[in-house]
Amino acid sequence: MKKIVFFISSAATGGGIQRSASMITSELDKEEKYSITVVSLYNYDKRKYDYGKNTKHLKGSIESTNNAKKIIYKAKQECRNLFLNLEFDSIIIEGLGLIPFIPKKILRNKAINKIVRDHTGYSNFKKYGLTWFGLKMSLKYMDRIIVLTKENLLEYSQLFSKYRDKFMVIPNTVSSNIKRFSYNSNNKKICFIGRLSNEKGPDMAIEAFSKVLNVNEYSEWKLDLYGTGPMLNYLKSIVHDKKLERNVFFKGYESNIKDIYNKYAFLLVSSKFESFGLVILEALKAGIPVVSFDCNYGPRSLIKDGENGLLVTNGDKEELSKAIYSLISNENLRNQLAKNTDQIDSEFDYFKVITKWENVI
């Protein structure tokens, strides 16, 4: 039986990294030839996702804190303890920023198949940050560096041609049993799904949407934001100041997000960067179009502008507002885009993605 470790910052949070990892582990867990262990740096009481009924879990003692230096120091100690007596054949590290914490005896062990998955993308790194150092170490120690899009692969191949063979594309995927809904063009609600944090741009989503409400005939439209995060109180103040309480609603964390898409006319994505965009793929699979900033890297690999959604210049709030308006004011356009949401490249097929993972581990 092959022993596989998935190393993740926290299994408690409900983000795209955790959701993607849980889909892979829960599928591999169904096969008797794998023994899966999920190792989490952070302490937690409850996991957001199911990682497989036979999957074992190891969790660290780090508590949530804003003191980055304290976390870095403690994380190194924690990793030494977590991996001290753990035996495994392959390790999948969920994020380049975790590499600096891995004990050197593991990094240097050629008998271990070492794989890291980049959830950020080179253009979105902070130079000399943890992710940047993690990449440098990955080039030296990792057997495979998994990226999520072909654009990612091209960028890395050009920047690090010496290590080209280490890089490989395995995109994210969504559950094989996700339900495709019959599109209801009478829905007058928009959904935003993501962490309420700066990189996801929820403030820009609210502000772009608010401009459309100035047109009286569309004042009944609603924007629902799913997610939690540090910007929540600030976003509530925007809603209050702009008197949007009857149009903008905070829904909190939703564990069964795939079941809510039939309530909405389209998904709104206002991220500053998006290494893949799991919710974009999920929305398209469910049958609703997507309006998104054309940020690096994921949206343009999933959205065909004018066919199954709309892409607008990254960071351009006015253009985002116009795109929202063009959809809510044109039922025929909404129907046409929704009709084309089934035109998704086969590379994102659930079983194809799982097979790729089985081939690398």
UniProtKB/TrEMBL annotation:
Gene3D superfamilies hit by this protein: Glycogen Phosphorylase B
Matching Pfam families: Glycos_transf_1 (PF00534)
InterPro entries from the UniProt entry: Glyco_trans_1
Gene Ontology molecular function, alphabetical: glycosyltransferase activity
Location of the Glycosyl transferase family domain: 183-341
Xref: PANTHER family: GLYCOSYLTRANSFERASE (PTHR12526)
Protein name as it appears in the record: Glycosyl transferase family 1 domain-containing protein
Organism from which the protein derives: Gracilibacillus dipsosauri
